[in-house]
Amino acid sequence: MEHEQPERLARNEATFRLINEAIEIGRVTRDGLVAFVCECSRLGCNELVELTLREYEQIRADARAFFVLRGHEGPAEDVVDSRARFLIVVKRGEAGALAERTDPRNPGG
User: Fold this and answer.
1) C-alpha–C-alpha distance, residues 89 and 81, integer Å
2) For residue 47, what are the CA distances in angstroms to 37, 40, 65, 86?
3) Between residues 18 and 58, which one has the greater pLDDT?
4) What is the pLDDT of residue 12?
5) Strands 87-91 and 77-82, how do they pair?
6) Where are the alpha helices (DSSP H) in the chain?
7) Per-residue CA distances from 55 to 11, 16, 35, 48 (Å)
8) Other CB atoms closer than 10 Å to residue 99's CB: what's the count?
9) How big is the chain by its Cα radius of gyration, in Å?
10) Counting Cβ atoms within 10 Å, is residue 46 exposed (0-12), middle (13-18) or buried (19+)?
11) pLDDT at res. 17
């Protein structure tokens, strides 16, 4: 994965974010934990991460933030929070700019 283009990795993560947006829409009334797709840059990752809808919304407040399983951190991101079930990472550099441009909640994205 070290040889992967940061932009391609960021696009992979953006795709998982779109999938998770659809999952959240279908679960807006559910309490407790909801299974979301890990938003890591690993091609083929289909691991699930359990979050509350509140946790999900807190992460979505930052277009550069993603949640990943421990050990799924990528080369163009920094871990900003470590929780029992997942890590929160923030994209930096061009990968961060791409994350902002592809954010489905960004009206200009």
Assistant:
1) 7
2) 6, 9, 18, 11
3) 58
4) 75
5) antiparallel
6) 6-26, 53-60, 93-101
7) 23, 17, 12, 15
8) 26
9) 13
10) exposed
11) 80
Residue of higher predicted confidence among 102 and 21 = 102
Q: State the pLDDT at residue 4.
A: 60
CB-based contacts of 41: which residues, under 8 Å, 6+ apart?
A: 1, 4, 9, 10, 12, 13, 74, 76
Written as one letter, the residue type at 61 is A
- Here the tokens at position 25 are 């829409």
3-state secondary structure of 80: strand
Q: Can you list the alpha helix ranges (DSSP code H) found in 61-103? A: 93-101
Q: Which helix (H) or strand (E) holds 88?
A: strand 87-91
Per the CB < 8 A criterion, the answer to whether 67 and 32 are in contact is no
Q: Scan for tokens 């700019």, then name that residue.
A: 97
